[in-house]
Design goal:
The protein is of the alpha/beta class. It has one domain: Alpha-Beta Complex (Maf protein). The protein contains 5 helices and 6 strands; from the N terminus they run E-H-E-H-E-H-E-E-E-H-H. The protein has a 6-stranded mixed β-sheet with strand order 2-1-3-4-5-6. Strand 1, helix 1 and strand 2 form a beta-alpha-beta unit. The longest helix is centred in the last third of the chain and has 22 residues. It is globular, with a radius of gyration of 17 Å.
Length: 202
Amino acid sequence: MSSSLELILASGNAHKAQEFAELFDPSVLKISAAPEKIEVIEDGDSFQANALLKAQAYYNRFKRPVLADDSGLVVTALPNELGIHSARFGGEGLTDKERYQLLLKRLEAVDEREACFVCQLCFYLSPNEIYFFEGRLRGTIAREPSGENGFGYDPIFVPEKADKGTSFASDPEFKARFSHRSIACQHAISFFRNFNESMDKS
């Protein structure tokens, strides 16, 4: 029987830690919170670059294998405004609600509502062993928020495969199964299941 790979999560975000706990098969990957949160300057020009910056910083600090992710919402009508800047859209200090309300206001007279959630995972096992996995989920930006679950832009994002008009915040079960983060995690689980088995045989 193969042993699981243990990593610390490069994030102080409690929502992300909970999501990963639910998304990963613990017999393959075990993710625990980092001993403490450290500040990382995320000045990369892509999701992958920022995920790597976080993973490197936590690995250098704690000398343990690290999982880092960088995720965001890409909105076709507002190129370069969200994406890797999603968490800072509108400036520092805004709440999740204030950010998505600002986005709705910016798109008020816009018919093009296409959007895509992107997740880039970086598994930093050592400086010489780094793996990336990406997940994407297309959808649209609703005209108004709905649902009581989720966080961030969930209340206004309607996945293309969901029931018509159903936001991420309205259907947490759908999000758990089909989110951008879930897709990236599925790719990682498939890879590391084989990885762990090959390591056991070596």
